[in-house]
Design a protein that fits this description.
145 residues, mainly alpha, 68% helix
């Protein structure tokens, strides 16, 4: 994203958070991509969506699953944890908080670090979607449908 060149210090700081989400998170890459795709969909971030459709394929999400992310947590065929992750993304984007029912479902399966990684992954990609949309970042040629 060329706009980041205008603020190297901010970019370096933000990249630390994204680097953690991508390479050091305690949630699985599949779980991460479900969250990122849901944020991209909710925020109508074409760049983020296109970039992470590719990443989702790399980590093993089927095309049908990627398409189903747009339908959200109530879509049929989601495993309970997947549905809860998508619900968490919805709730964080809408209310800046995971609701009690979703939190209970997630905390039955995920530990505290994983729950933190869920929140911070959604938050990081929410901020990134804001930047992408505000600065009208166009799709890279290799991502254009």
């Amino acid at each position: 994203m060329g706009v980041q060149a205008h603020h190297p210090e901010l970019t370096a700081a933000f990249n630390q958070l994204i680097r953690h989400a991508l390479y050091f998170s305690t949630i699985t890459p599949r779980q991460r991509e479900l969250l990122v795709l849901r944020v991209a969909h909710l925020r109508d971030s074409a760049y983020e969506w296109a970039q992470h459709v590719y990443q989702a394929g790399v980590v093993g999400l089927a095309r049908e699953e990627v398409a189903r992310v747009r339908m959200g947590p109530s879509a049929p065929e989601w495993a309970p944890l997947d549905a809860s992750l998508l619900a968490a993304a919805d709730e964080l984007v809408a209310d800046a908080r995971i609701g009690e029912q979703t939190y209970d479902a997630l905390s039955a399966v995920l530990d505290t670090q994983q729950l933190m990684d869920v929140v911070f992954t959604v938050g990081a990609y929410e901020v990134f979607a804001m930047a992408l949309r505000t600065f009208d970042v166009e799709l890279d040629d290799d991502l254009t449908p």
